[in-house]
Amino acid sequence: MLLFITDLLSQTWANLRANRLRTFLTMFGIVWGVISFLLLSALGEGFARGNQKVLAELGKNIVIIRNGRTSMQAGGARAGRVVRLTIDDLKTLQAESKLLEYISPELARGGLRAKSAYNSSSVQVSGIWPIYQYMRTIEVDRGRPVSEEDCLQARRVAVLGFDAAKQLFADRDPVGATVTLNAIPYTVIGRVRKKQQDSNYQGQDDGRFFIPYEAARKDFPLPGSMNTPDHLSTIIAAPYQHVTDEMRDLIEHETNMISFVGLNARGPVEADVRRILSTRHDFDAGDVEAISFWNTAIEAVMFDKMIASMDEFFLAVAIVTLLLGGIGVMNIMLVAVRERTREIGVRKAIGATAAKIQCQFFAEGLLLTAISGLIGFAVGMGLCALVNLAPMPERFEGMIVTWQTGLFAVAVLTVIGVAASTYPARRAASLPPIEALRYEA
Fold first, then answer.
1. Are residues 133 and 214 in the same domain?
2. Domain residues for 197?
């Protein structure tokens, strides 16, 4: 058996070498198809990961809950009332909601005067709980984040955004230094890494100060006669993963922006929050304007659908290119069968079976496809590696070839190779020996 395979491969290789130009032109179609498939897939994967990373800078699947205004009468109260969130609202949601896994207050103040020993600046300040940093990807590259103990003791400590630290301390290490916020001294305990953020609701994180919520409500309560230290700017929450998956399934059945907006108003998390808060603020639980929501899961699903459509287009282009290469292999093999008709007749006359003839031509087509595929893989991976040596722009993580892409390419290439080789091989095997011997090229 081993000798048969060795002879088969040796004869196949000799036949391919005998027609170098034709073999090269045939192989080029497959090589180009594999290169196109790898490059397009790697480009789409790099773009998808880059954009997912930027989207995650705001927070992965978080719900931003803000003040609203009633649009319906309820309990004898008029429509148009402003609903202002308080820390007691947050504690009620924390105790009663079965859908929210994490929750944090945020008390945001803008235009505060920050001053260090080197410079001063106008900054935005957010009073938060430690879990906020996890939900919002507030990750420090120096020092430490805000801790539970900081909040319990209402410590005057601050984590600075990357740009805010640069503005106040230039290239110096800010950790351990003292800054004043509206003349109140705060100790810098950390600096947030540089964030590539494309969306926000209170300003870019790079330019903000993050301090314990308990310190913020004491030193910087919201302005206005109707506000007290108990009022919040925002409640940040993260639903349990099974709720997020449920939302994604619902959203994927919607087909236009109007449906997305409607679903956002009817989603399980939003409905649960309105149900709980409606009893505290005397508004109708069905009043979608009473509490304002921004559910980032919807934005993530919309982006995923866009990327999926782009991947499908790239995949279609790559498969068509490979199919054209496969058709080229089939055409060349049919030409080879015609040119070698007399050879086939001689081999049959001296005892070669139809199965051996078929096996010979099948092996030639399959080997041609396999060698072309290997060359295409090598060139495609090399080009991806070459591109990845260059500086990457924002929203692009480089040319990324996943194992799924490689496996799919091998599967498609195998199917095309088998399909392109089978018909010519059967055509060769079915030639009658007498007619083949009479054939004049």
1. yes
2. 63-302
